[in-house]
Write a structure and sequence with these properties.
CATH topology of the largest domain: FAD/NAD(P)-binding domain
Oligomer: single chain
Distance between the termini: 30 Å
Number of strands: 17
Radius of gyration: 22 Å
CATH class of the largest domain: Alpha Beta
Strand content: 15-25%
Largest sheet: 7 strands, mixed
Helix content: 25-40%
CATH architecture of the largest domain: 3-Layer(bba) Sandwich
CATH superfamily of the largest domain: FAD/NAD(P)-binding domain
């Protein structure tokens, strides 16, 4: 019996685990992959916070609301922005080293990103997520007495007893049977769902499994239709993994161009290449379709080579591997599924509608992102609301009255479901992509339903999450933020602000 079971070991899961361990709680961390292999590790740009005297909470709030296209929950946004300095202070206390300005000792080197009115992005070169994970994993080892860690373990379902979450059913890699894991409190921190689509910047395990297991347990889901497609992933078919070209490159002066060198964003949005991500992604897709090309370009060659290498050493090195010298060559880019703005519905303390169950990080729907996430608010959301979850657990982590039992259920597995997953990813890309239609979504959902008879526990979660996203997209009959429908090209003020789905009693 653990005090807290944390499912997922990215920035949100580790924040909960470390803060709880500092309070003397016994924590069990479960992760599907190896310790550092989550979306946090892939984050390049940084973490948004008001740290400059020229900046203000009001400005950060306004920028977030503007990007969210009318669907942000303002109270949650206020909590996010006003708790940002404390979140940064906690990360630094845990050993995170953010890049400092060269001309002023002690101050941060702040980046500008799309949709932000001020430079407020703290970063560590262009490997911010990797640095955060490095520091948190070092801290994790210091709490080995309080925190147990099980890698390569897949959660099949949550355990619910007397309307309370009391643990989870999990299976370790290559296991033929599942087992029950019990805890007084359970935290879902399973990350995003970008790998439901054919082209994604996410790591392989970001398959939205938290969505399906929460749904089957009776948790409410919200805003699943809002998948953010990052406008600038590197177009390099020879790479096995999609590589992200950080938003900070555009903030540094990167200009989007077509193959003729025309700056096609100039007539699309007043911020041109620094417009919000949904606008840029659709503009790139539109220009690709208009010109018949497979990608567009991002040009940073007008900046000094030394400055480019200093600010973006990782991007420079990766592009060079692909024979692209970004100090001289334009960078070929294409949109890819990147970040799920919705997820498991939570309140301001990360509580779901199920007692004893919290959700933090990308799996959660706090409402701060609305219909489109503002750049670099994601790492911030993870830390702020994970810390608030821990604050709430101090008051509400009660000893639940439930019965422990042994579970040894046989697993239904297939040797290889990669081809089936590829089918789902292709359906999602073609029918629930950057631009959608009601007919396309209906056809896509029908195609997914034909795959329901496949008997494999992991594929079941993958397929069910994809179906839930499709169902949410069909509910919103308007174009807003990341939902772009050809049938309904305008916003509809009569649409419900947020669509929530929840499994009814069987």
């Amino acid at each position: 019996m653990h005090d807290i079971l944390v499912i997922g070991a990215g920035i949100a899961g580790l924040t909960v685990a470390l803060k709880a361990a500092e309070k003397g709680k016994r924590v069990l961390l479960l992760t599907k992959g190896a310790k550092p292999d989550g979306s946090t590790n892939y984050a390049q740009g940084g973490i948004a916070a008001v740290t400059s005297p020229e900046d203000s909470f009001e400005s950060h709030i306004a920028d977030t609301l503007e990007a969210g296209d009318g669907l942000c929950k303002k109270r949650q946004v206020e909590i996010l922005t006003k708790n940002a300095p404390n979140a940064i202070e906690q990360l630094i206390k845990w050993g995170v080293n953010f890049t400092t300005a060269s001309d002023d000792a002690g101050s941060f080197d702040l980046h500008l990103e799309g949709g932000h009115s001020f430079r407020r992005i703290l970063h560590t070169a262009d490997l911010t997520g990797k640095e955060i994970m490095r520091a948190l994993l070092v801290k994790l080892k210091q709490h080995s007495q309080e925190i147990d860690f099980i890698e390569r373990s897949t959660v099949l379902d949550l355990l619910i007893q007397k309307s309370r979450c009391i643990g989870a059913v999990a299976a370790e890699q290559n296991a033929k049977k599942a087992r029950a894991i019990y805890a007084k409190t359970v935290v879902l921190a399973t990350g995003g769902a970008g790998r439901l689509w054919l082209h994604s910047t996410n790591p392989p395990d970001a398959c939205g499994e938290g969505i399906s297991i929460a749904y089957r347990a009776g948790a409410a889901l919200q805003d699943l239709e809002f998948m953010q497609f990052h406008p600038t992933s590197l177009y390099a078919p020879q790479l096995k993994k999609t590589f992200l070209i950080s938003e900070a490159v555009r903030g540094f002066g990167g200009i989007l161009k077509n193959h003729k060198g025309e700056e096609f964003m100039n007539d699309v949005h007043p911020l041109r290449s620094l417009a919000p991500r949904d606008i840029v992604a659709r503009a790139i897709l539109s220009e690709m379709q208009r010109t018949g090309k497979d990608y567009m370009y991002l040009d940073i060659t007008h900046r000094k080579a030394k400055d480019i290498k200093t600010h973006f050493p990782n991007i420079y090195a990766k592009c060079l591997e692909c024979k692209i010298d970004i100090t001289k060559d334009w960078i070929p880019v294409v949109p890819a599924a990147h970040y799920m703005c919705g997820g498991v519905l939570v309140d301001s303390y990360s509580r779901t509608n199920i007692k004893g169950l919290y959700a933090c990080g990308e799996i959660s729907a706090t409402g701060v992102h609305g219909a489109n996430r503002l750049a670099s608010n994601s790492l911030l959301e993870s830390v702020v609301f994970a810390l608030r979850a821990c604050e709430d657990m101090k008051k509400n982590c009660l000893n639940p009255d439930f019965q422990l039992s042994t579970l040894n259920s046989q697993l239904s597995t297939l040797r290889d479901v990669s081809k089936l997953k590829k089918k789902v990813q292709t359906i999602m890309w073609e029918h629930c992509g950057i631009v959608r239609s009601m007919e396309g979504l209906k056809i896509g959902l029908e195609k997914l339903m034909k795959l329901e008879k496949v008997a494999d526990f992991e594929f079941r979660n993958f397929l069910e999450s994809a179906k839930l996203v499709m169902e949410c997209a069909l509910k919103r009959k308007e174009s807003r933020g990341l939902q772009c429908l050809t049938d309904y090209p305008e916003k509809n003020p009569r649409c419900l602000k947020h669509y929530t789905i929840k499994k009814g009693p069987e």
